Amino acid sequence: MNEKLIAQTFRGALAALAVLLPGHSVLAAPSAEAVLRTKCQACHTETDEGFSRISHQRKSPEGWLMSIARMQIVHGLKITDEERRAVVKHLADAQGLAPSETEGVRYALERRLNTMESFESEQFTQMCARCHSGARVLLQRRPASEWEHLVHFHLGQYPTTEFQAFSRDRDWLGIALKEMVPELAGKLPLESEAWKAWQARAPQAVNGEWSLSGHMTGRGGFSGVMKVSAGKGEDLHALSFEGRWDDGKPMAGKGQALIYTGYEWRGDLVVDGMPMRQVLALEDGVLRGRMFLRDHDEVGGDVVASLQRDGNARVLAVHPAYLKAGEEGELRIVGSKLAGEIGLPPGVSLLETVRRSASEVVLRVRAETAARGAHPVTVGTASGGSLAVYERIGELKVLPAYAVARIGGNGAPTAKVEARFDAEAWDVGPDGQPGTSDDFRIGVVPARWSVEPFDEVAARDEDVKFAGLMDEASGVFVPGGAGPNPLRRMSANNVGNLKVVAEVEQGGAPLRGEGQLIIAPPRWNNPPLP
Fold this sequence. Notes:
single chain; 530 residues; alpha+beta; Lipocalin; Immunoglobulin-like; 4 domains; four-stranded antiparallel sheet; 30 strands; 37% strand; globular
């Protein structure tokens, strides 16, 4: 299949899923029902239950987007971006997933591509999650007949399926039809009580001021206020953001967000000149998910926000989330409806209230030795945040423990994919032994970063020299260029296998944490759901 066509179609599909940026009009949006009848009815017959095949599936917005893109690539469907946007919105609203049905697999929606999947069913892992993520399957709902259709589609569209690893050693088609179809239909049915209950829910409030807190790997924490107002289309909202990084540098952005299925928030905004996306889930006055660069989804961070409204008093986070015993520091408590008495951990003394508002309370505090541990922080009735008071860092972990970067550029049509790491500190108690009940997480701390060969093969092939560069201060690894490298053994490309090392000074000696980084070939196929 033409790789260029696939890449172009998915890029266009993602653009269609993104909300319209300021300056575009949504007033002339086409009717989804009209598009279904004019563009889809040539292959999908209309019945009392809806359209054949289409009406017997439920998916996320990204799942419906991929279905339409596949119709373009495989069947030559001609559809404009505006028409595709309307159809995805309609199908995600009418045939989407309840919030509980996305639990545990939102990492695929949020583009957390270093997630290591693990499933109870080994057969599901081998039959369904060896060519694409298992999350792609778990973000669908179908009756048994449609799961059977999907099996036949796989074998018809990809005839080599039965000859690949974990297929040629078994009766793949027999297992798929006789065992996997009933399993999937039972666990992922078209009809569910969760979906019925969600369809009957009242609309959720969105417009207003949101207090927002986040952390971007390789850059640090940030917080601020996001203002949301009604846009020019159904479920379309204008947004603006003003905040700052934990190092004091200001940040600001504006754009729009579209809500699918009553809770699936998809934002498209420009922050400090950088196009970014938000993939968040809305629940009871709280938004949770991830914000990342539009063109480099590996660059992003966790986000949580709460709406400033009565009855929604919450502490979202404390910046920074730790303080060393015996030292003073400035804390920023971020949340919504922050009013009333400030509750600090035992042994932490309030020296000064620097400033306070409904969204942020800034304090000067001192931590005494007796305060060791991770403790809740409250402001009046608002709770949810915590502060770790530690005596010493006893263990350092590299996050993610296993990551993949990808070579690119250098004349290749695909860009490099960075790898970004955090150093997570833990206090392991007086015994100094990790893995005991005394352990508690301190938080992400600054570290000195480096890479080493992961094994003897990596040392022999000089992977440290050729695979890319690690920034010592930030933990950001930039891989090498794509294509053969005449300086490498056998003119190999710049792939590699590296050990990622984070170090902090502790008691006059370096404390070390380690992870693994695979530098892989370019990312040729980048669908909305991996």
